[in-house]
Amino acid sequence: MPPRAARNDEKALCSRRAAGVKSASRTTSSPIALRISSEKGGRASRGGALPKRAVNLFVYGTLASQDRVHALTGRRFRRLAAELAGYERVVPRRDYPYIVPNPRGKVRGHVLLGVDPVSLAALDRYEGEGVLYHRRRVAVRFGAETASCQAYVADPRLTRSRQNRKGR
């Protein structure tokens, strides 16, 4: 994530109310899938591309705060507790949390349901999407069920530079 001063400036820019875009949902027989709309139409970002419809977003750090998300997007999203397998959460001293792939790891967080493209763009700016983090498609668990959503994963160059500073 960007330095705190830059994030505060970004927060001020993003705090205006985002225009609402209704999400399209698909019906399935699973109770979780009824709440977690399919995102086959929304692809994870590559080079700043935004999906054309709402997506579900796994959050695990500063965006796990409903107040922070509201300040950035002007919206409150329904959310469900979830677990992301295959990643680990790293919380450096005096820095923001991030996740990195780890086959044995598990990260607890929440899935924000139906994040519209305008709100997603505000969250992308806040997270430094494409520079510090990359929004990727991941599979999360809700009890015994699994659903696809997106999550911000740390840029590998960021994690390597932090490891080098630690002398690893």
Précis, in short:
27% of the residues lie in helices and 33% in strands.
Entry keywords:
single chain, 168 residues, alpha+beta, Hypothetical upf0131 protein ytfp, 5 helices, 27% helix
Overall number of structural domains: 1
Strand order of the largest sheet: 1-3-2-4-5
What's the count of strands?
Answer: 5
CATH architecture classification: Roll
Structural class: alpha+beta
Helix percentage: 25-40%
CATH topology: Hypothetical upf0131 protein ytfp
Task: Give the CATH superfamily.
Answer: Gamma-glutamyl cyclotransferase-like
Please tell me the overall pLDDT: 75
Kindly describe this structure.
With 168 residues, this protein is α+β, with helices and mostly antiparallel strands. It has a single domain (4-165), classed as Hypothetical upf0131 protein ytfp (Roll), CATH 3.10.490.10. Helices cover 27% and strands 33% of the residues. It contains five helices and five strands, in the order ααβαββαββα. The protein has helices at 4-14, 31-35, 66-73, 117-127, 156-165, and strands at 55-59, 79-90, 98-115, 133-142, 145-154. Strands 1-3-2-4-5 form a five-stranded mixed barrel. Helix 1 (4-14) packs antiparallel against helix 4. The radius of gyration is 16 Å and the shape is globular. It starts with a helix and ends with a helix. Mean pLDDT is 75; it is low at 1-47 and 162-168.
